Amino acid sequence: MNHERHEDLAALAALDLLSANEQAELNAAVADDPILQGLIDSLRSAAAELARIAPAVEPPAALKARILAHIAVLPATARETPQLQTQILEFKKPKPKTPNSKLPAWVGWAAAACLALTSAWLGQSLLTAQKADASLHDQQTLADLELHSAQNQLEAERLIARRELADATARATAATSNLSALQARLDTATAASTDLATRLNLTRTEIETTRLQVAQLRAGLASREAQIAALDRQLKEQGDLATYKIASLVSIAGNTPEALAVAVWNPANQQGVLSVQKLPALTANSYYELWLIDPQYASPVSGGVFTVDPATGASQVHFHPAKPVKTAAKFAITLERKDGSAQPSTLLFVSE
After folding, report:
1. Residue 29's CB: how many other CB atoms inside 10 A?
2. Strand order, beta sheet including 286-293
3. CB atoms < 10 A from the CB of 40, how many?
4. What pLDDT is attached to residue 74?
5. What are phi and psi of 333, to 5 degrees?
6. CB burial of residue 270 (10 Å; 0-12, 13-18, 19+)
7. Cα-based angle 161, 165, 171 (whole degrees, multiple of 5)
8. Closest-CA residue to 83 (of 123, 114, 111)
9. In angstroms, how far is CA 318 from the centroid of its own chain?
10. What local confidence, expressed as pLDDT, does residue 235 receive?
11. What is the predicted pLDDT for the residue at 98?
């Protein structure tokens, strides 16, 4: 912007149209940039050449008649310029006659008239040229003033446009910053929404799994209750229920939550019934073994070995202890070798 401003001031300085403040500004710029002085001198030379290349002015057609009319009354007037009078008087002086002179007398007057006509025409041409030059100077001054005014207006409009551009840039920057902040908030909200959706899906899966487990537990409980009811009916048919001990066995390892085991013991005849469901299938060289725990013995009393259906894991076993049992405090099921064991090996289930 400063470079364009200094060039504008240099153009006005070449035409002597600068104000005092603008001249001071230009002088300071010339001090900082000596090349600017060369530009000013070049512009001044170009402005001086404008006067030399001005076209010649054609004198008016009526000028000649006016000059001739003026010459006709020239001897009778006393208002001619001293220079013109001197010239005319000089032409009026009779030339010395020579013997060889053959020019008539009127030639001198004709020469004087021509000289007067030429002088008058030149004077009129000079006056016309001066008027034209003054008019051109006035027009040039007016044009320079208009140019200076237009330049000032252009500079003001340029400043306003740059200010508006700066304001628009600031607004665009602020809008971009706001957009970035909104985008960040949107990304955060989207991530939070995705996380919530994932957690919701996990919760739904957990709820569904819990429902299935509850349904399985309810089914197992219903099956156990049905098994106990069946044993109860069976025992009622065999004797007095008050003398029987009924025990429900639970898994020790906790890896077979669906397995069911119920033992009914009749101490009167030293007999009992064990009913199991959903026990794991056995290998070829292993058996399940039932144990009765009587406080009077240091070791559990074996109630015999049994197997289960490989498909359903169910079995119903009538057992007799290896030796008399006075009080069956608890029942247990272990995993043993095929031929059984004198002592429990791997404990799987025990009564509560």
Report:
1. 18
2. 301-306, 286-293, 330-337, 346-351, 245-251, 260-266, 271-277, 315-319
3. 18
4. 63
5. -125, 130
6. middle
7. 145
8. 123
9. 81
10. 60
11. 47
Residue 272: which of 331, 225, 312 has the closest Cα? 331
CA–CA separation, 273 and 290 (whole Å): 11
- How far the first Cα of the chain sits from its last, in Å, is 99
Can you list the pairs that 133-140 forms with residues at least 24 positions away whose Cβ atoms lie under 8 Å? Answer: 133/51, 133/54, 136/54, 140/15
Tokens of 12: 């006005």
Closest by CA position to 288, among listed 270, 309, 304: 304
Distant-in-sequence, close-in-space partners of 325: CB < 8 Å, separation ≥ 6: 265, 267, 270, 292, 294, 301
Structure tokens at 52: 């030399």
In order along the chain (352 residues), what is the average pLDDT of each group of 10 residues? 79 85 90 87 80 63 74 58 44 45 48 56 65 79 82 82 87 89 91 90 91 86 80 63 82 80 92 93 90 93 92 93 92 84 86 84
Residue whose C-alpha is closest to residue 276's, from 294, 285, 288: 288
CA distance 190 to 13: 66
Structure tokens at 276: 């199991």
Q: Which of 252, 246, 247 has the alpha carbon at shortest distance from 344?
A: 252
The one-character DSSP state at 105 is T
Q: Give the Cα separation of 315 and 290 in Å (integer).
A: 12
Any idea what DSSP says for residue 352? Answer: -
Structure tokens given for 117: 């006509």
Strand, coil or helix: what is 51? Answer: helix
CA distance 111 to 71: 12
Give pLDDT, residue 49: 72
C-alpha torsion 130→136→142→148, nearest 10: -120
